[in-house]
Design goal:
With about 375 residues, this protein is of the alpha/beta class. It has 12 helices and 13 strands. The strands form 2 sheets. Strands 1, 2, 3, 4, 5, 6, 7, 8 and 9 form a 9-stranded mixed β-sheet that branches.
């Protein structure tokens, strides 16, 4: 009896050894998309440019090359299908790093180029999305000097670095963030802008602002930092202020930022107060004054507070000009005063003008680095 049981188990186990993956694809037969660019042609077509990895089987393992492919179609999906005209290998988007929207295409309704991206279950929600100055394909087609990385990977690294090491002059937006902003009532979506400098290097160039599913304007570097300060999103930055004598330039490094809103309503008028607590450290001093005296520290704290207020109010003026709620103030009214929001929401872009915005900033310089005084030469 035991022999029959053992024989049956062996036969059962052998069945698994004989089963293979009927739809498996060799890596050398695949094309891996790592960067995507969409452009809008003069005849109204979508131009799709993809940076790809092309694995090839060698005697010892695999080698990988990168190159770009460009195709056109009446829609994004038709352009994707047209990839089969230039390659017979199976295409995968699972490793895509970045999506770049060309400047001309960004002026069109977003559903033209975003809908298919959002529907695909092959594309991860943490893909970086950005808008280019000029054609997107020009940025993706630049040959990267670092042979270990692709152009798409370099752009993705640039975007990733803005979170912890940026100076607040741009902001990282993932696919999931964009869709969340687009679905939030009254809120204006934003995307970082990139461009090529004279050396053909990718640079950040502020933020693009969406309204009614199209780009309606841009925020420069100062307005971008004002937005990040107001919304409590700034994690890293330096601020330049002058000391009390106005003979020393002092660089203050942001250490921490806490933010909260307060919404008030009186006689039908709405006031939103943004309250910030900012902690910083002295990072650099250009000059020889003793800036560690209490009156100097108090002056520097006040100077930093005024600078932050000015940058936020600059962004606020741009918001009113564009009639696009980049500061997401409508969300705060809805959160704290929902009944008031019901009166404002129907014509919110216009009603932005009726809001009073106040800024309260408390600053604290925690330390001055490893030296108390600047080094002076004594001959």
């Amino acid at each position: 009896m035991k022999k029959h049981v053992i024989f049956a188990l062996l036969v059962f186990l052998l069945l698994f050894a004989l089963v293979g993956c009927w739809d498996s694809v060799e890596i050398s037969d695949m094309i891996i998309g790592i960067g995507t660019a969409y452009d809008f042609t003069e005849d109204g077509q979508i131009e799709l440019t993809v940076e790809i990895l092309m694995p090839s089987k060698q005697e010892q393992g695999y080698s990988v090359e990168t190159k770009t492919i460009t195709v056109k179609g009446a829609t994004v999906i038709e352009a994707v299908q047209n990839l089969s005209k230039v390659t017979n290998n199976q295409f995968t988007w699972a490793y895509d790093q970045v999506l770049i929207i060309g400047e001309e295409l960004s002026k069109q309704p977003t559903n033209i180029y975003i809908d298919s991206w959002n529907r695909s279950h092959y594309i991860r929600p943490d893909v970086y999305i950005t808008i280019s100055k000029g054609p997107a394909k020009d940025i993706l087609n630049v040959e990267n000097k670092d042979s270990l990385n692709s152009q798409a990977k370099e752009i993705a690294n640039l975007m990733k670095g803005q979170i912890s090491r940026g100076n607040g002059f741009s902001y990282t937006i993932l696919q999931k963030d964009l869709f969340s902003d687009m679905m939030t009532e009254g809120a204006a979506a934003i995307l970082p802008i990139i461009e090529l400098n004279e050396k053909k290097e990718v640079e950040l160039a502020g933020l693009a602002v969406f309204k009614d599913n199209t780009v309606v304007g841009e925020l420069d570097s100062t307005e971008t930092r004002g937005l990040l300060l107001a919304r409590g999103l700034l994690q890293s930055s330096v601020f330049l202020v002058k000391d009390k004598t106005e003979t020393n330039l002092v660089v203050l490094n942001l250490l921490g930022l806490k933010q909260k809103y307060q919404v008030k309503e009186k006689d039908g008028k709405v006031e939103i107060i943004i309250k910030l607590e900012v902690k910083s450290a002295i990072r650099e001093q250009i000059g020889y004054e003793d800036i560690l005296q209490k009156e100097q520290i108090d002056w520097l704290n006040q100077a930093l507070a005024e600078l932050i207020k000015a940058e936020i109010l600059t962004t606020w003026e741009k918001e009113k000009e564009l009639k696009a709620d980049v500061l997401h103030l409508g969300q705060q009214i809805n959160r704290y005063k929902p009944k008031i929001w019901q009166k404002l929401r129907e014509d919110w872009p216009e009603n932005i003008q009726k809001i009073t915005l106040s800024i309260e900033v408390k600053t604290q310089i925690l330390f001055q680095g490893d030296i108390n005084y600047p080094i002076q030469y004594k001959n």
